[in-house]
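Hello,

I think I submitted the cobalt (II) ion job twice by accident. Can you confirm which output corresponds to this input? Input:
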Amino acid sequence: MIGKLNHIGVATPSIDESVKLYRDVLGATSITDKWAMPEQGVWVCFVNLPNSQIELIEPYGDASPLTGFLAKNPAGGQHHVCFEVEDIIAARDDMRAKGATILGTGEPRIGAHGTPVIFVHPKNMGGVLVELMETPKGAAH
Ligand code: CO
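Support: Only one job matched these inputs. Its output is below.
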């Protein structure tokens, strides 16, 4: 059911500091500007790699879902993996039918790529928070 690995989400207390790591230490040459997603409670930016992306996410506002994660991991760390699916509703219903818990209301929200996403509880995914994202229509990636 899952398609491409779209990105790996990495939580950080500071996107600006993390960008220095990916750009200056690892040598990434294509990194987007950061932007705010207030409804998700995050700042976000993407490090573009030849075959995938790293999504850097930093808390935005007091009610950010990243606050607890960064309390446990003050330096930041790997937060989630994101796989593409063709149809987000079909994927959600299939996951539920298999006993998985969808986070939040269970209704897809628009993610950082402008397509609907859901998150599957890590307790059902071997400890990994899994984001499923509908493949952008007509997009190569
Ligand atoms: Co993500």
